[in-house]
Design brief:
The chain is α/β, with parallel strands linked by helices. It has two domains: 5-75, Double Stranded RNA Binding Domain (2-Layer Sandwich); 91-203, Arc Repressor Mutant, subunit A, CATH 1.10.10.10. Helix content is 27%, strand content 19%. It is built from six helices and eight strands. It has helices at 39-49, 62-71, 91-100, 111-117, 124-132, 161-168, and strands at 5-12, 15-24, 27-37, 54-55, 78-79, 109-110, 145-146, 202-203. The protein has a four-stranded mixed beta sheet. A two-stranded antiparallel sheet has the order 5-8. Strand 2 and strand 3 (27-37) form a beta hairpin. The model is unreliable at 191-205 (pLDDT under 50).
């Protein structure tokens, strides 16, 4: 990491979020988004990811921070993609993240659904591993991918947050704590736009 990299921590309705970013003559590029947690937890995660980063409230991060705050207030938000630095994402992970964006607001899908979108057989485990390393949660809505039995699973060491985010988006749950059938895309369901470029806007709330 070099000295152009910085971070900011800001409060949301469900805890503190973190942004790590770099800035140069071309403007600000987001390197990582940290999901809401207690402020010391987010500080520790940022320090582990980017030990040399300094705290900075750069004006070019204000819109994104405000959009994330509004998301956790239950508002629908169109997140811009053009500030994301995807250079650390491998080719396969980029394909997975792009497919993830095709799961609509208010819906969920299984890891197998993503694999099928990518033309893979038996690729659910690889999909899960790629999503677990998603550097841009919330913007790339990996919380919408769940297990094939409609249980939601874990979410980047944030207990309860995945369900809360899904409920903010209107996803319904049954009496067993599983995602309700009407909020779940079956393997045969398709969504247009799987190949949209990462530079487009994505509406995630």
């Amino acid at each position: 990491m070099n000295r152009s990299e910085a971070y900011r921590i800001y409060s949301t309705a469900v805890g503190y979020c973190g942004l790590v970013f770099r800035h140069d003559a071309g403007g600000v590029r987001i390197l990582r988004i940290f999901l809401p947690a207690a402020e010391p937890t987010v500080q520790q995660e940022i320090a582990a990811f980017c030990p040399g980063a300094v705290e900075e409230h750069h004006e070019d991060t204000e819109d994104l921070a405000r959009s994330i705050q509004e998301y956790f207030q239950g508002k629908r938000v169109a997140f811009p993609m053009d500030s994301l630095d995807t250079s650390r994402c491998g080719r396969f992970q980029m394909r997975v993240l792009t497919a993830e964006r095709t799961i609509p607001y208010g819906k969920t899908a299984s890891y197998g659904w993503i694999a099928r979108r990518l033309g893979m057989r038996g690729g659910a485990q690889a999909i899960g591993q790629a999503l677990a390393r998603n550097p841009f949660p919330i913007i790339i809505p990996c919380h919408r991918t769940i297990r094939f039995d409609r249980t939601i699973g874990l979410f980047q060491r944030r207990g309860g947050l995945k369900r809360r985010m899904l409920e903010l988006e209107g996803v319904r749950f049954d009496s067993y704590g599983r995602v309700a059938a009407e909020s779940y895309l079956d393997l045969g369901d398709g969504v247009r736009g799987a190949g949209q470029n990462m530079q487009n806007l994505v509406e995630t709330s």
